[in-house]
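Quick start: read one record
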Amino acid sequence: MELAPSTNFTPTKDDRPVMPPPLPVMLVTIEDARLAAAAGLERDLDAFYVGLLQFEREAKDEGIVYKAENFRLFIEVQEGPVLRDDMRMLGVVVKSLPDLMRKFREAEIEFSRERGLTAGDERLVLLDPAGNWLRIMQSKLIV
């Protein structure tokens, strides 16, 4: 079967605003999260949250702000040692846990693997550069 001859197609300019793709990281919370950090850790926090976890850094007057797909993470910078009221972990959901474990090993970041009761239920538990506890999980597509 022969193909029909092609026509000279010229696409028209799309005037709709460009929608950026969704970020590959989400926070497990019901509102924007706040964590504390000592002064002088901004580069380390950027390398961790933007470079490894793929958050997006936002320029805000409130200090250090990282944007996930669903909420924002505000880092409150404090002078001197950081005093914590609790040791609750912040939940983070990423696209691929094996890829993130490889990145952590290459960056020599210490983490612990935590397995759940069901098959394939696995999480990473670690400290960010500011000493905040994170529990990182992989997103699962439910069909």
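The helical segments are 42-52, 97-106.
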